[in-house]
Amino acid sequence: MAARARMVPGFVSLGLAVLGLLAVVVGVAIAAPAAATETAWAVASVLAIIANVLTVAAVVVGLVAVIGRFGRWWGAAGILVGVLSNPWLQVTVLGALA
Q1: At what angle do helices 38-68 and 8-31 cross, to 10 degrees?
Q2: In whole angstroms, what is the distance from residue 98 CA to residue 96 CA?
Q3: DSSP 7
């Protein structure tokens, strides 16, 4: 039981990252249609902010998990998903490539 309790930060990191990814996907799905209204854009903007917070938290908790050996592989997966699904980083990288 103690070994599983030590893995909690890793699990939390991956969970936060997946929730952030879900917020990004839902936000894009809401704002993508050509007929999106101002309300849809506002909801998508709030979801983007939520996704930013969740993915940054996932990376921080993942770093704690990796450094402290608290579910190291789950934490590493949380860091990877958190970085790749962060909306701010996506816009920055795609803007630099354009």
Answers
A1: 160
A2: 6
A3: T
Q: Domain residues for 69?
A: 2-97
Q: Could you give the CA distance from residue 16 to residue 23 in angstroms, rounded to a whole number?
A: 11
Phi/psi for 28 (5° steps) reads -65, -40
Q: Which two tokens stand for residue 92?
A: 């920055």
**Rounded distance between C-alpha atoms, residue 82 and residue 74, angstroms:** 12
Query: CA nearest 45: which of 91, 97, 94, 82?
Result: 91
Counting the structural domains of the chain, the total is 1
pTM beyond 0.85: yes
Question: What local confidence, expressed as pLDDT, does residue 82 receive?
Answer: 96
